[in-house]
Amino acid sequence: MNASALYIGIDLGTSGVRACAIDQHKTLQHICKAPLPAPDKQKNAVTQNANLWWQATHKVLAELCKHIHPQNVKAICINGTSGTVLVCDASGTPLAPARMYNDAACTEQAALIKTIAPADSAAHGASSGLAKLLYLQQNVPQAQYFLHQADWIVGKLCGRFNISDANNALKSGYDPRTGNWPNWLDSLAVNRQLLPEVVPPGTAIATLSVKNCQQFNLPAHCQIISGTTDSIAAFIATGANKPGDAVTSLGSTLVLKVISESPIYQPEFGIYSHKLGNHWLAGGASNSGGAVLAHYFSQPQINTLSTLINPDISTQLNYYPLLKVGERFPINDPTLAPQLEPKGKTELEYFQGMLEGISQIELDGYKKLQQLGAPYPSQVETAGGGSQNKAWSLIRQRTLGVKVTQAQFSEACYGSALLALRGVKSTI
């Protein structure tokens, strides 16, 4: 491999498109972004013109190529939001607005899926890719291709609109355990001619089209590598890559992921497994998290109180911080009420009690995953805004009993760039 070889990762996010380039040593060379307008919302329907994705991707790729040597780019890989789908004609032109990841209008289709699909399938629910497929094939009968968001951008780059990756295809009914679109799809009258060929993330698909090579001054041998979903790309970005490696995302909600040697499916807890190389990525999401802290404390308060905490001395308050009634993981109880009483004697004690409560939920979450067959974390990388809170990290480290560190990288575009690098290495 050339010492100056570069690899590009593109992240199709909810508010914008980000792109970055890394070298063969995984060193970040440059990162840039372009905004996306908010999707159109009408009751439970959330849609967007897919051409906006391409316009933003085109813009961010053109900008990135100004800051690197584009002729050194060996590969490009794309991630997209899980469950965002569209249908196209034979040339890849969208035939209807894309239905976004949080579109939940396909309730009739979801009800039908519930009667047919196995209980452990990730294709359940009105926001699943499969529910949207059933809706689109009925309402857009002239469609030639059913694609996920990342798939369509892949097609715009290389001209192939008939291919997807195993992670994006999961919510559309694909079974990564067997490596097939399952037979029960036929009972739903799924038009199999619409379904894309599915390959593992990090697979070389094709080379960049001549038109795009000319527009971006990229080389003709630049490969397009199959991608993944945005959340998995963010996991990959942290460098976690072996069983026992875990990543906790401390954003508005608490999201846990750990690499396992075997898949875990526990839909009542919202637990599904994605294939990741030779292993599986299992995880769950609690309704607790940073949004609860932000409800009770301003950011200046959080910053000040965090410097005053003694993380080695527990408050013993035993909180379960939630904004409203209901929890799914690690407890599946729609009636579970927030537990934030008795209120701490001081504002500092109250704040620390909440941090300890969320840390306990994190511990219970990893224990739940362990009960179901995943390894208990050997180490925990942390992403999200809460990862910067040193006092909280020490509380979590004491609670979890393993090393807790802030991830150096957690940008999904960086994870996709790593996949681009792996994809090229696997073909050499």
Verbal overview:
The protein is of the alpha/beta class. The chain is 31% helix and 23% strand. The strands form 5 sheets. A 6-stranded mixed sheet has the order 3-2-1-6-13-12, sandwiched between helices. Helix 2 (107-116) packs across helix 3, helix 6 (230-237) packs across helix 11 and helix 9 crosses helix 10. The relative contact order is 0.14. The mean pLDDT is 96.
Which characteristics define this entry?
19 strands, alpha/beta, globular, Nucleotidyltransferase, domain 5, six-stranded mixed beta sheet, 428 residues, single chain, 23% strand, 11 helices
List the helices and strands and how they pair.
Layout (H helix, E strand, L loop, with lengths): L5 E7 L3 E8 L4 E8 L4 E3 L2 E4 L2 H16 L6 E8 L4 E4 L9 E2 L7 H10 L12 H11 L5 E4 H10 L4 E3 L31 E3 L4 E4 L2 H7 L6 E7 H8 L7 E6 L3 E7 L11 E5 L2 E8 L3 H7 L2 H10 L38 H25 L7 E5 L6 H11 L2 E4 L5 H16 L1
Parallel strand pairs: 1-6, 6-13, 10-11, 14-18, 18-19
Antiparallel strand pairs: 1-2, 2-3, 4-5, 5-8, 7-9, 12-13, 14-15, 15-17, 16-17
Helix pairs in contact: 2-3, 6-11, 8-9, 9-10
Determine and state the CATH class of the largest domain.
Alpha Beta
- SSE succession: EEEEEHEEEHHEHEEEHEHEEEEHHHEHEH
When the domains are counted, the total is 2
The structural class is alpha/beta
Short description, anyone?
The protein is 31% helix and 23% strand. The chain is of the alpha/beta class.
